[in-house]
Amino acid sequence: MHRDIVTHVAVSAADFFITGSVDGHLKFWKKKPLGIEFAKHFRSHLGPIEGLAVSADGLLCCTISNDHAVKIYDVVNYDMMVMIRLPYIPGSIEWVYEQGNVKAKVAMVVNLKMICINRTL
């Protein structure tokens, strides 16, 4: 159901399948016993989705693009929770965890430097 090339695919531990495309669209799909069912569509970014990551528990998803934005989604409730404007274009993104801590943080690579966003969600 994407209208352009799908560039990113992630599977959530919460039984969701998430796809992102070159036109900046993000789609959530619910895993069913016999296949998948379309759940929600977002025009996530003005440019192509450059990075897509799902948290280890499968409840959060984040995307980046060359539009200087990080967007964080609540997967189960199909909701965009946070949009962060950056003064730079992020290169890649991933969820990180401190040992013994259940709070997730988002880490990005920018010009080969790692940056960690420590924001309570």
TrEMBL record:
The keyword rRNA processing does not apply. Keywords: WD repeat. The keyword Thylakoid does not apply. SUPFAM superfamilies: WD40 repeat-like. WD repeats lie at residues 1-30. PROSITE patterns: WD_REPEATS_2 (PS50082). This is Uncharacterized protein. It comes from Kalanchoe fedtschenkoi (Lavender scallops).
